[in-house]
Design a protein that fits this description.
The complex is a heterodimer. Chain A is of the alpha+beta class. In chain A, 37% of the residues lie in helices and 17% in strands. Chain A contains 16 helices and 13 strands. In chain A, the strands form three sheets. A nine-stranded mixed beta sheet of chain A has the order 3-2-4-7-1-8-13-12-11, with helices on both faces. In chain A, α1 (27-41) packs across α3 (67-75), α4 (91-104) packs across α15 (363-379) and α7 packs across α12. The longest helix of chain A has 17 residues, at 363-379. By secondary structure, chain B is mainly β. Chain B has a domain at 39-160. Classes of the chains: A alpha+beta, B mainly beta.
């Protein structure tokens, strides 16, 4: 696939502090706060916005259909064009890419992508039920009905296939919760040990409470623009140089056992005996990475990407995703975290913000939150927005954001870069 | 004449449950009965009552699915129903200690993905008769069927095959990593 559209830039962003429950604000006001932050940061007015994309996952949480238009209405963006995008956990990433498409196609010069979820309207276990309705309701929901259970089976198979250990998974939790200590937007900053993670209550073997992200209320906004408009709005826009999306079967049971779709830095001989993806890896993640890398001209991901914000709803999925993104080869994800390559001072910092594990996961907002944090990282404005520069990398030029749905059913990868 | 300036809306004494007054947080309930059709997958659920586990095989490329699927994802052709073996092996497993609200009373429960000889894909089911520490990848397991059907995929479940204890564990219980 060739991307032949116009160049697309991100010009501003805003995020609310994610929290378990914020009953004093509804979803409209939450988005308004993130939206105003983004608008005020670059002195935009409503007239400057051509249209929008609304990002939210479940109608069940809010029990309100067409919640998107209520936000559009509250923000004062009516009667401008807008639509709702939904694709499970990847909703935010898909909406971000839908905003990209609106600019790339020439339809809009500026587009506000806003995401939100209010998960506190039901208790955690009812919330798990709503999320599990995003598995096949004829075959999978009545049997398991629990996403952590599905991911646990994938983790067990990854451990069987590649020798990954629960201690390696715990190290992801330690890293991301520690990064979050310097991110004032995060929900669960924590200093942890391997013992803390392993001794927290077992949710679904081998995943403990601290291997799993939380439910949250939150909102995030990204404002995208065409090249001409972007440089009018800010001196420091960040270019989105490639997007990619992959899909896979709804039922985990239906995943094939075939060959690895290779990245430019891999050879077929690397995976002679590996049956792929089975349930150990995410073919949609690999497919998304391949498309995005081709568009952005990336041939050697580990050496050409400076920072990654990826969808770590589970520690195991972060390890699996290192491999899907080609940061290391399939089977080397456990070693990758062991060697500290994804730490803040490592080869390629992954989830410097704390990720979903520590920032929280208000589904429709999460994928956009990643875009905002990466935007600030590449703009080198972390200090301004986080009131601390501890998470600011030295000279990041290119970042990758990754959003992920279901058991890996929709996955998006978007590449963001400091303009040359 | 139907105009009535003294009209008064009827009131109910049901009241509303309140969790907090500032902000005002009230209880609201939602429940619904669906008229849910299994449509082209109906045969799978009917067959469970005859102690048969039905999968599908592509008429054109012969890809074998351990799940109902009336068209092939590999080539798009129609599939036909085929009976799956009742013996399989654990491809992967977990024990859920928490779950969705409806399943919480059933915790802890085991989930397995089952592989069958001669079929290219897997089947998800519950497994009973073993604890977390007893299960392992490759463990031989056997399908069992409920006598009283609820027309749910849980009408079939799996149990460990006889003599399926892990060879390396003498007491049948080995702490796995």
């Amino acid at each position: 696939m060739k991307h032949k559209g116009r160049k697309v830039y991100m010009v501003s962003g805003g995020v609310t502090k994610f929290a378990k429950s914020t009953p004093d604000m509804d979803f409209r006001l939450r988005v308004k706060k993130a939206f105003d932050y983004a608008m005020n940061d670059v002195n935009l007015t409503l007239e400057d916005i051509d249209g929008s994309v609304a990002s939210y996952f479940s109608d069940h949480f809010q029990r309100q259909l067409m919640a998107g238009i209520m936000v559009q209405d509250y923000l004062g963006l009516t009667p401008k064009p807008s639509k709702r995008i939904e694709g499970g956990g990847a909703t935010g990433g898909l909406a971000f890419q839908s905003g990209y498409e609106a600019i790339a196609s020439g339809r809009m010069d500026t587009c506000a992508v806003y995401g939100f979820e209010s998960m506190s309207h039901v208790n955690t276990w009812k919330g798990n039920e709503f999320i599990a309705l995003a598995s096949d309701t004829n075959f999978d929901y009545p049997v398991g009905g629990f996403y952590t259970g599905y991911y646990a089976m994938m983790a067990v198979r990854h451990m069987h296939e590649f020798g990954t250990t629960v201690e390696q998974l715990a190290k992801v939790s330690i890293k991301n919760h520690a990064n979050a200590i310097d991110n004032p937007y995060s929900q669960s900053p924590m200093k942890l040990t391997v013992d803390d993670v392993r001794k927290s209550p077992m949710v679904s073997y081998p995943l403990t409470r601290l291997d799993v992200c939380t439910m949250s209320d939150g909102a995030a906004v990204a404002i995208l623009a065409s090249e001409e408009k972007a440089f009018e709005i800010t001196k420091h826009p960040i270019e989105i140089t490639g997007i990619g999306t992959g899909t896979d079967t709804m039922r985990l049971a239906d995943r094939p056992f075939g060959k690895v779709p290779l990245l430019p830095n891999e050879k077929a001989s690397d995976y002679k005996n590996l049956k792929y993806p089975g349930i150990h890896s995410f073919r949609a993640g690999r497919t998304a990475a391949k498309e995005a890398y081709a568009a952005a001209g990336i041939t050697d991901p580990i050496n050409e990407i400076d920072a990654v914000e990826l969808h770590d709803a589970y520690t195991s999925s972060e390890v699996q995703t290192y491999e899907d993104l080609g940061l290391c080869k399939y089977g080397e994800g456990g070693q990758f975290i062991d060697e500290g390559k994804s730490k803040l001072n490592g080869k390629v910092p992954v989830n410097f913000s704390g990720g979903l594990l520590a920032c929280g996961h208000p589904v429709g907002a999460s994928g956009i939150m990643q875009g905002v944090f990466m935007f600030w990282q590449l703009q080198k404005t972390i200090k301004k927005h986080f009131k601390s520069d501890k998470l600011q990398l030295n000279n990041p030029r290119r970042g990758l954001i990754h959003s992920h749905a279901g058991t890996g059913t929709y996955v998006t990868v978007s590449v963001m870069e400091v303009p040359k | 004449m139907t105009i009535n300036p003294d009209a008064k809306m009827e009131e109910s004494q049901n009241g509303t449950e309140i969790y907090s007054t500032d902000p005002l947080v009230v209880k609201s309930t939602y429940s619904i009965d669906y008229i849910h059709s299994y449509a082209q997958d109906s045969e799978f659920f009917r067959a469970l009552g005859k102690k048969k586990l039905m999968g599908s095989r592509c008429k054109k490329c012969h890809y074998g699915y351990a799940t109902p699927r009336s068209h092939c994802m590999m080539c798009g052709a129609e599939t036909e129903w085929v009976e799956l073996p009742t013996k399989g092996k654990i491809h992967s497993y977990t024990t859920c200690y928490f779950g969705s609200e409806v399943f919480l009373p059933q915790t802890p429960f085991n989930l397995v993905l089952v592989e069958f000889d001669g079929f290219d894909s897997l089947f998800m089911a519950r497994l009973i008769g073993a604890e977390q520490e007893d299960m392992y990848v490759g463990m031989p397991i056997v399908a069992k069927f409920k006598r009283l059907q609820s027309f749910s995929p849980t009408d079939v479940y799996f149990v460990p095959a006889k003599g399926s204890e892990q060879p390396s564990s003498s007491n049948g219980k080995k702490k796995r990593r």
